[in-house]
């Protein structure tokens, strides 16, 4: 089984469930900006337009996860785990009114894991129908 590039904690899954109940299908995007621009942002699916300058890394709890292509160049050897903590981020991410914010925990892939990685796709070519 290929090594996933992005994972999600149980706590983040619970927050995703709350948001999905209110907003419908969701998506995540992580840009390469500073401050909260380096936190994953949760949007209603399709609310954030992705394109060739974005990279699709996989799905977490039924949500597509994208990262800016330039940021992916720095993080391509790193497994990301989406978590949630109490606190308020300064962004447009959907979890903000809940008094929590998503964040990324990371670790480097092992050499063995890097031999069998899940594929990535340009944002305008990702397998939208993947389950």
What attributes does this structure have?
131 residues; DUF779; alpha/beta; 3 helices; 8 strands; DUF779 domain-containing protein; three-stranded mixed beta sheet
- What Rg is obtained from the alpha carbons, in whole angstroms? 14 Å
Q: What is the string of SSEs from the N terminus onward? A: EHEEEEHEEHE
Strand content: 25-35%
Class by alpha and beta content: alpha/beta
Number of helices: 3
The spatial strand order of the largest sheet comes to: 3-2-5-4-8
**Largest sheet, if any?**
5 strands, mixed
Number of strands: 8
List segments where confidence is low: pLDDT < 50 over at least 5 consecutive residues: none
If you average the pLDDT, what whole number results?
Answer: 89
End-to-end separation: 16 Å
Helix content: 10-25%
Molecular shape: globular
Description:
The chain has 131 residues and is an alpha/beta fold. The protein has helices at 10-23, 69-75, 111-114, and strands at residues 6-8, 26-30, 41-44, 54-60, 63-68, 78-86, 100-108, 121-122. It has a 5-stranded mixed sheet with strand order 3-2-5-4-8. The chain has a 3-stranded mixed sheet with strand order 1-6-7. The mean pLDDT is 89. It comes from Hymenobacter segetis. This is DUF779 domain-containing protein.
